[in-house]
Amino acid sequence: MEHGASDLRSLHAWLRSDAVVRRSATLELQDASLQPGQMGSALEVIKLVTENGWSAASFVMAVVAWKRTQPQNPHITISRDDTSVSLTNCSDEEVERVIRMLSERQDGEEQGE
Fold first, then answer.
1. How does pLDDT run across 3-27, given as a tens digit for each residue?
2. In angstroms, rounded to a whole number, what is the distance separating the alpha carbons of residues 7 and 12?
């Protein structure tokens, strides 16, 4: 996930306070990987490592709930491997697309693909 450092700290705290997310994932703040010559803020990514019992839907709904509490409409990009999906207005279609992306990847991993 990429965004401004203050928004990331806020989202990180929100996710850590969510019991479902906290039980099934480890969250950490990290610097984004920058290419030589690129500039960026010191803190640009929340890294999420999932465990057994992971629920993509619960995670995405926690992100949506946080986003709706923000006075400005922060742009959130959720990435996994080479796939990224943005949540701009948290429409049903966007939310379903993110959940599907994360769930399909998870199902493939569980099947050993």
1. 477 888 899 999 999 988 888 888 8
2. 8
Q: Could you give the CA distance from residue 54 to residue 36 in angstroms, rounded to a whole number?
A: 35
Structure tokens at 112: 């050993």
Torsion sign over Cα 65, 73, 26, 95: positive
Segment 28-64, tens digit of pLDDT: 888 766 555 555 555 468 888 887 767 888 999 999 9
Amino acid sitting at position 52: N
| Whole-structure pTM value | 0.72
* Residue 75: alpha-carbon gap to chain centroid: 11
Please state whether beta strands 76-80 and 83-87 pair in parallel, antiparallel, or not at all (unpaired): antiparallel
Q: What is the DSSP string of the chain?
A: -B--HHHHHHHHHHHHH-HHHHHHEEEEEEPPP--TT----S--EEEEEE-TT--HHHHHHHHHHHHHH-SS---EEEEETTEEEEESS--HHHHHHHHHHHHHHHHHHHTT-
